[in-house]
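Final report, closing paragraph on structural work. Over the funding period we assembled a curated collection of sequence-structure pairs, and we close with a single example.
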Amino acid sequence: MSNVVDLPRLLVETLPEAEVSAAADLLHKVWHSTYKADLPASLRRERTPEHFLDYLQTRRTQTSIARLGGRMVGLASISANCIEDLWVVKRYRRRGIGTALVNHCLAQLRHVGFDHAQAGCEGFNRDAVQFFQSLDWTCIGASTEQLTPALHIEALVFSRPLAAA
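Its predicted structure, as stored:
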């Protein structure tokens, strides 16, 4: 007799209103773990759980969450033709969750009639750069942004056509 264990199911859906607070907590934790080595504490302190709650409340209907086996493990949001946010809990990366979130966002952008999608990330965020490159996104621009008088970062913009699926 074999014991078959069901694998957790991945579900991507629009952020339910009742879960904005949980999504804000997830975003707060992932954002801080991503930037702790690259941004000064003074900038990180500005990004409180309340900051992310306010942020997500204004864009809830454009935000998608990913659940793996019922657990919220990532989120993405869109604005115009851009993927504005793409965050996956570190321990759940490299399982197709980011790709599923991107595909969900691209389907939404295609549905409203865009021909191309864009996304951005910082040049120091190697994981994000490699992720977009692995999905055949093209870097179409870079600019130097000043975050503090002593801190400048490279902001990258990626693009890809939205051919019919």
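The beta strands are 10-14, 63-68, 71-79, 82-88, 116-122, 138-148, 151-161. The mean pLDDT is 92. We thank the funder for supporting this effort.
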